[in-house]
Write a structure and sequence with these properties.
CATH architecture of the largest domain: Alpha-Beta Barrel
CATH superfamily of the largest domain: Enolase-like C-terminal domain
Number of domains: 2
CATH topology of the largest domain: TIM Barrel
Shape: globular
CATH class of the largest domain: Alpha Beta
Structural class: alpha/beta
Order of helices and strands: HEEEHHHEEHEHEHEHEHEHEHEEHEE
Strand order of the largest sheet: 5-6-7-8-9-10-11
Number of helices: 12
Number of strands: 15
Helix content: 25-40%
Largest sheet: 7 strands, parallel
Length: 395
């Protein structure tokens, strides 16, 4: 018997009946959208350190959701983004991101297919991933990188440096070079090393560091300066022959339009939980492809965000590598796989992860644990650093 796709979903009048939010450790927020036919979609809506603000914003958006057809994702997205008059920014866009993920999860389940099958189908069979090493003040980087290499990874990322003044001493520069040298010595010439400046470095020292790191052939340097200074990327790029990555603190296609037009950036890193979810990041990635710029979604978050990233990676020609937070130093108390029941689907083999196989986003959420965690909501805040003179430092 032939079954029309429309019979499975929206022609039967599916409507949103519940929108629920949950705090889960170590620092995440989950969104659950329930349709009146029993289908449930999950999203990850959080801005690290501002989970309460984001989940409160999701609750504000309930008025745009209850009673609506969850399959009309573009319409719901555009309504939430445009009808509120004020738009963009970390809190509003992170709330919209989690909602968008949940809507895609429902739609995939309605059609019994992974989301990427509804987004044009996959253009790859698996996705390359990297692993974090070190912490905010990284040490013993050679040993840590060798452990990741032995586990099958072909690339790692590390924080480059502690706090740096706008003009700082060269002993701090030498310490960065020493840590990267340890990785090269331990893992060989062709092992991938991504070096995250984390926005802690200002232009004068960024140019120095980028030039001196060139000798190690890094995979990329990340956030050499903040995107507030995106006009400076071109100057930093001219100072070195190292690919530059950035974009985790940008939130819309319009932000990325300005970044791409400014030049100097080789890899964009939109976050699926900050930059509008699958709907917006797919558009951002396609826009970057037109500039011959690669896509490497930012994801130091939980399993729903990671699954969402992999859906976009699957359909984006210019997706090159995926961040993931299993084992990252931020995760204290709970970690990524604690919240999923289909753990094998997130197994890394030879530095790759297979594309999600289950319908929707491809993650089965352990709701019992989510409910338990939400009884004692976390209040994670990022560290506050100071320079030796007492002035505030970028973290």
């Amino acid at each position: 018997m032939n079954v029309r796709a429309s019979d499975l979903c929206y022609n039967r009048g599916m409507k949103i009946k519940e929108v629920n939010v949950y705090f889960v450790r170590p620092r995440w927020g989950f969104v659950e959208i329930v349709a009146d036919n029993g289908l449930t979609g999950w999203g990850e809506a959080v801005l690290e350190g501002h989970a309460r603000a984001v989940l409160a914003c999701v609750e504000e958006y309930r008025d745009y959701l209850i009673g609506k057809d969850p399959s009309r994702i573009e319409d719901i997205w555009s309504t939430i983004y445009r009808a509120g008059f004020y738009r963009g920014g970390g809190v509003l866009m992170s709330a919209l991101s989690g909602i968008d993920q949940a809507l895609w999860d429902i739609k995939g389940k309605a059609f019994d297919a992974p989301c990427y099958e509804l987004m044009g189908g996959r253009c790859r069979d698996r996705m390359k991933v990297y692993s974090w090493i070190g912490g905010d003040r990284p040490g013993d980087t050679g040993r840590a990188a060798k452990e990741k290499k032995d586990a099958g990874f072909s690339a790692v990322k590390m924080n480059a440096t502690e706090e740096l003044q706008m003009i700082d001493t060269y002993d701090k520069v030498d310490a960065v070079l020493s840590r990267v040298q340890e990785i090269r010595d331990a893992c060989g010439k062709y092992f991938g090393i991504a070096i995250d400046f984390h926005g802690r470095v200002h232009k004068p020292m960024a140019k120095v560091l980028a030039k001196k790191l060139e000798q190690f052939d890094p995979m990329f340097i990340e956030e050499p300066v903040l995107c507030e200074h995106m006009e400076d990327f071109k100057e930093i790029a001219a100072a070195c022959n190292v690919p530059i990555a950035t974009g985790e603190r940008l939130f819309t296609r319009y932000d990325f339009k300005r970044l791409l037009n400014a030049g100097g950036v080789d890899i964009i890193q939109p976050d699926l939980s900050h930059a509008g979810g699958l709907t917006e990041v797919k558009k951002i990635g396609a826009m970057a492809e037109a500039y011959d710029v690669a896509l490497a979604p930012h994801c130091p978050l939980g399993p729903i965000a990671l699954a969402a990233c992999l859906q976009v990676d699957a359909t984006s020609y210019n997706a090159v590598i995926q961040e993931q937070s299993i084992g990252i130093h931020y995760n204290v108390g709970k970690t990524v796989l604690d919240y999923v029941t289909n753990k094998d689907d997130f197994k890394f083999t030879d530095g790759y992860v297979n594309l999600p196989r289950l319908p929707g986003l491809g993650v089965e959420v352990n709701k019992d644990l989510v409910l338990e965690e939400n009884k004692t909501p976390h209040n994670w805040k990022n560290p506050v650093w100071h320079h030796a003179d007492g002035s505030i430092a970028e973290w």
